[in-house]
Amino acid sequence: MRRIFRARLRAGVLLALGLVLAAAATPAAADSVSSPTTSVSRTEQATWDLISGQLIYSGSTRCTLGFNARNGTSRFVVTAGHCTSFAGSWSGVGGYIGPSAGSSFPGNDFGLIQVASAAALSTPLVDRYSSGVDVTITGVATPPVGSSVCYSSPMTGWRCGSVTAINQTVCYPQGCVTGLIRTSMCPGPGSSGAPVVTNPGSGTTVRAVGLVAGASGNCTSGGTTWVQPIAEPLAAYGLTLVTG
Hints:
- By secondary structure, the chain is mainly β.
- The chain has 2 helices and 18 strands.
- The protein has helices spanning 81-84, 231-237; strands at 5-8, 48-52, 55-58, 61-64, 67-71, 74-79, 89-92, 95-104, 110-114, 120-126, 135-140, 148-153, 157-172, 175-183, 195-198, 205-218, 222-229, 240-241.
- Strands 4-3-7-8-9-6-5-18 form an 8-stranded antiparallel sheet. The chain has a 6-stranded antiparallel β-barrel with strand order 12-13-14-17-16-15.
- The longest helix has 7 residues, at 231-237.
- The radius of gyration is 16 Å and the shape is globular.
- The chain starts with a strand and ends with a strand.
- The model is unreliable at 1-16 and 18-42 (pLDDT under 50).
């Protein structure tokens, strides 16, 4: 029998991620940080790249682009379900992306944004910000305990840590999320839905692990980040990752 570990968290546990999950959470509860690192152009570009780890927003809700995926000719962005359940129309660093197309939260924590803009180009890239050049997603991985993993987000940049446990259950006022991966990666604001990938070391390719779903602590004193495995939304929505 699979042993399930439970962690019951305070309502403000996702403050560090940029989205407050309170008993009556609404898009208005989202992070509205106006730091230069989250400023975006609202002018639609001719074409622009959808890159994992970059800012996505809907009104004042700030989250992170997790992964690009396809179902036939339809294109999607996969991010946290607690993001897409609170917001409708999404934009990114280059302009309009499209509407929310699905959300599974609580129980799981994944959601879809349909890429409705022909100007937004789906890529297999993950932004590493000041830590190095973009890396390329080549597939999916389920790393065991002790493995090194990293995530990317616009406020925190590129952060790495290790897998410390699997099959975790984390509970919020809205309900519990099961099957999560617990890691030692430190959390930062705006990280909801951020892509978690294998550590590339000195290489240029990674495998997709999951999406940042919740956290406690910070990157000054340290903390814990929980990850929604990416295999679940891919199976649930019949998606294929965009890979290179």
